[in-house]
């Protein structure tokens, strides 16, 4: 089930549409202004195959972020640059 991004030529609104089949033919209108002048946007993608060394487990790092507050960072497994 592909999700496609579209931009309204009238108001510039960018929105997504889920298709049940990649060959599905439907009339698409802008959810913001109901215009029918829609163009498909090629979305930027970012993915990596495999994980970098030592990045297979989530890691939580706690640190002080001020006088009485504490911040946390959650590092999720994935590609390491």
Automatic annotation (TrEMBL):
Output the Pfam families linked to this UniProt entry. Zn_ribbon_8
What's the domain of life for this entry?
Answer: Bacteria
Residues forming the Putative regulatory protein FmdB zinc ribbon domain are 1-43
What InterPro entries is this protein classified in?
A: Regulatory_FmdB_Zinc_ribbon
Spell out the protein name for this chain: Zinc ribbon domain-containing protein
Q: Which organism is this entry from? A: Candidatus Desulfacyla euxinica
The lineage, from the top, is:
Bacteria, Deltaproteobacteria, Candidatus Desulfacyla
